[in-house]
TrEMBL record:
This is VWA domain-containing protein. Residues 47-78 are annotated as: Disordered. SMART domains: VWA. Pfam families: VWA_CoxE. It comes from the Bacteria. Residues 57-76 have a biased composition (Gly residues). It comes from Actinomadura rudentiformis. InterPro entries: LolB, Uncharacterised_CoxE, VWF_A, vWFA_dom_sf. Residues 226-388 form the VWFA domain.
Length: 390
């Protein structure tokens, strides 16, 4: 057994095949190793030879029986069900590691019983990865499981809403002007002017400036007058993160005075979800992920919602892999831009804003007059605020 912390760490990282070089594990480290092997040892012939459990792949039932994927586990004392494994990782690892393990279990190894087994759902901590998994698998759930899964949806949506609502309030509170203000609010603190005004209070021996006279700036007031925001969201499976953030963004923008928000989901069909915008949890439970993609059809529907082209922000959130008529899509976007509509094509609307998308189609839409890119929800709110505050 190794007693070197460095070797122990490498043994945990590299798995059982590194035991000959790093030594064995004992105590809590051995438990951590078994938990990691249960997940990352799938398909590893060395771990299969040792009889380490593989249960749970693609919804395995945790019984130790073959799961149809060509992998078999042993029946020795190391047998773990998904419920056991979750209990172990929550006991053995810090929160950041737990979230990574759960994400890999669902997204990399497709252990679907993480989100379809009632016993697992009762134990698991809600997080964005599990929310995406719930939305992808809710069609597999019976009513009892769906009710438990809804807890994950509600918890994560609540957290996202609280965070995004703050960002949106800041974006729409007005731009900072250079006019002094007698209202002392931290967000309006004028750092440069304050330092200049208090340089006489610099203490060289302490290397500090003592502030006797703080300065603040005022903010211009935004006038939100008869603007429309139309969000068209691709609900194909690869866009699940954007679907979540679009629903939450629309809910946060809904209550802004003078801004009329629409939310439309599409695949080969188009579904207007505007009536559900105020309840993003219910909205997400209605979304049907997957299917083909007809962006041109969605854009055509969205165009019928426009009341004043020059006071409309038209956002298409998609990976731009068009399954419909490409020429119709490009022509429709060009017509919208020419009539004065602000057209925004987003390949992702989520916290990472690192999309996979059809770059050729995205370039064609940009050439037709659309602003094309990827954004976080907060940056979208700033974009909207900048346009309607002009």
């Amino acid at each position: 057994m190794t007693t070197d912390p460095g070797l122990e760490r490498w043994r945990l990282i590299l798995g059982a095949p590194a035991e000959g070089h790093c030594g064995g594990l004992a105590g809590e480290a051995a438990e951590q190793g078994r938990a990691l092997d249960w997940l990352y040892g799938r398909g590893d012939p060395e771990l299969t030879r040792r009889g380490v459990r593989r249960g749970g792949v693609r919804g395995g039932d945790g019984t130790g029986e073959p799961d149809g994927s060509g992998r078999e586990g042993g029946t020795g004392p190391s047998v773990l069900t998904t419920v056991d494994w979750l209990d172990e990782v929550h006991r053995l690892f810090p929160k950041e590691t737990i979230e990574r393990l759960e994400r890999d279990a669902v997204e990399r190894y497709e252990i679907l019983d993480v989100v379809t087994d009632p016993a697992v759902l009762e134990r698991i901590e809600p997080n964005p990865t599990l929310l995406r998994a719930v939305l992808r698998t809710k069609h597999l759930m019976n009513p009892e499981v769906l009710a438990l899964a809804r807890r994950i949806v509600e918890a994560v949506v609540r957290e996202l809403t609280e965070k995004l609502a703050t960002e949106i309030r800041q974006a729409f509170s007005g731009t900072r002007s250079r006019r002094p203000s007698r209202f002392k609010q931290a967000r309006n603190f004028d750092f440069r002017r304050t330092i200049r005004a208090n340089l006489g209070n610099y203490r060289p021996d302490e290397r500090r400036v003592y502030i006797e006279e703080p300065h603040f700036v005022s903010r211009t007031r935004r006038h939100l007058d008869k603007w429309q925001l139309i969000l068209l969201v691709d609900q194909s499976g690869s866009m699940v993160g954007s679907v979540i953030h679009s629903a939450v963004t629309a809910a946060c923008l809904w209550s802004l005075p003078g801004l009329k928000t629409h939310l439309v989901a599409f695949d080969t069909d188009v579904v207007d979800l505007t009536s559900d915008v105020t309840d993003p949890v219910e909205l997400l439970m209605k979304v049907q992920l997957g299917g083909g993609t007809d962006i041109a059809r969605a854009v055509g529907y969205g165009a019928t919602l426009i009341e004043n082209p020059r006071r409309t922000i038209f956002v298409v959130i998609s990976d731009f892999y068009e399954g419909g008529h490409e020429e119709t899509l490009v022509r429709s976007v060009r017509e919208l831009a020419q009539q004065g509509t602000q057209v925004l094509g987003l390949a992702a609307l989520d916290e990472e804003a690192e999309p996979e998308f059809d770059r050729a189609m995205a370039q064609r839409l940009a050439d037709a007059g659309a602003h094309v890119g990827a954004m976080t929800p907060g940056r979208l709110a700033e974009f909207v605020a900048e346009r309607i505050g002009r």
